[in-house]
Specification:
Elements: E1 2-4, E2 7-14, E3 19-26, E4 31-35, H1 41-50, E5 54-59, H2 65-68, H3 71-78, E6 81-83, H4 89-92, H5 95-101, E7 121-122, E8 133-137, E9 146-150, E10 157-161, E11 164-165, E12 168-169, H6 179-190, E13 198-201, E14 207-208, H7 209-215
């Protein structure tokens, strides 16, 4: 958990694929953003209810079922709007087929209220936290893959989805994947971030930008 002043960022794994879902919220106003509500609807909703959060937006790093599979249900229960890059709409529209292929439960796709665009910023409107979360379009794992970056905390944080992992990169053998593109995205958009940036990956352990720059075999 990360905390500075009124802002909290809390990440936790959900589902059998252990996707890292994140809550970003104000402790005073309770306004919240959820990133990648992929599975374990009850777990996500229990945390939202325990913290008495008012979820306004659902942001998605990409449209693979393990990152977006319960988004429609979270939106229905909270009234939040849902946001996804249009490059991944073909995957979102095939959400049921994705779930069937991996034998995993997914909610019926709901409305996407707006399409994420590169450099788009997000705020907690009920607070002074304006434009603190930045969208970074990083195609490669999927055409619409995005990361979310903030330098508000004492140490910058990147929510990387399945673009960058500790010592690895996202797989590119699924529909829409492109190895050359993901490497370009990482080198052009992520490796230049401050070296101390803490990377919350889509699955598994966190890492640091300077560690990946020096040690990731895919980036040498």
């Amino acid at each position: 958990m990360r905390r500075k002043n009124d802002l909290v960022l809390e990440s936790f794994p959900v589902g059998s694929f252990q996707c890292n879902c994140s809550l970003i919220y104000s402790e005073s106003t309770k306004e919240a953003i959820v990133v990648d509500p992929g599975n374990d609807l009850d777990q996500i909703m229990n945390l939202i209810e325990e913290r008495e959060l008012d979820v306004k937006k659902l942001l998605h790093t990409h449209a693979h079922f393990d990152h977006i599979g319960q988004s429609a249900e979270v939106a229905r229960k909270t009234g939040a709007t849902s946001h996804l890059h249009d490059g991944d709409m073909f995957l979102y529209e095939a959400l049921a087929e994705q779930g069937m292929f991996f034998n995993q439960p997914v909610a019926k796709p709901g409305e996407i209220h707006s399409h994420l665009v590169d450099n788009e910023t997000f705020s907690l409107e009920s607070t002074e936290l304006k434009e603190f979360l930045h969208t970074v379009h990083t195609p490669g794992h999927t055409p619409g893959s995005c990361c979310f970056y903030t330098d508000y905390f004492d140490t910058p944080v990147l929510l990387a989805g399945d673009t960058l992992f500790k010592g690895s990169i996202g797989r590119t053998d699924l529909p829409g994947g492109d190895t050359n593109q993901i490497l370009k995205s990482i080198k052009d958009r992520l490796i230049g971030l401050p070296g101390e940036t803490e990377v919350i990956t889509g699955h598994g352990p966190e890492t640091l930008i300077h560690f990946e720059k020096s040690n990731n075999p895919f980036l040498s």
